[in-house]
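Example record for the data management plan.
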Amino acid sequence: GRIVLSVASGTDSDVWIHDISRGATTKLTSGGRNLWPMWSPDSTRVAYASSREGSTNVYWRRADGSGAEEQLTSSAHTVIPQSWTRDGRHLVVTSVQPDQPNYVAVMPTKGQRTIQRFQTGDAPASLGSLSADGQWMSYVAAESGRLEVYVRPYPGPGPALQISTSGGDEPCWAGRGLELFFRRGETLFSVT
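Corresponding structural encoding:
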């Protein structure tokens, strides 16, 4: 098995891949702040955010280190990768802009990579993640004035369903099932 991680060194951070069976670690990026790495569904690529060109944008590179990295977004603001669709054709991202609330969006990985807003409502939202079956998107939004966990059918249409009731953050789908974990303060909750 392999693990992808971001390791800080001074003001920079780089993405590394650690091969557990061989005990070998390989550096995938070089220079700048490279954060939030995630495997493609087929494990051939790693997507990550990098601020080496000024603003933070999404890049990807082959996991074996061959070939050059490719910049997938070119926003003047911040775009952070959060999740992949099962087929690897789309990335779920959070767009962070100073003149509007954060929002969850989806962008194709091939062709014209236009970011399309996913979540409904105008409240700040982030941390979009797709369920293992690819049919539900979870995210965190402040629709009620505080952070709550929501799910919505993917790719839609369909209403957003509020999952947490007294605040919630950091939703995470469990393995291959439809169990959703989220955090409220120091407590971890599970919903099926």
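Summary line stored alongside the record: The CA atoms of residues 148 and 165 lie 7 Å apart.
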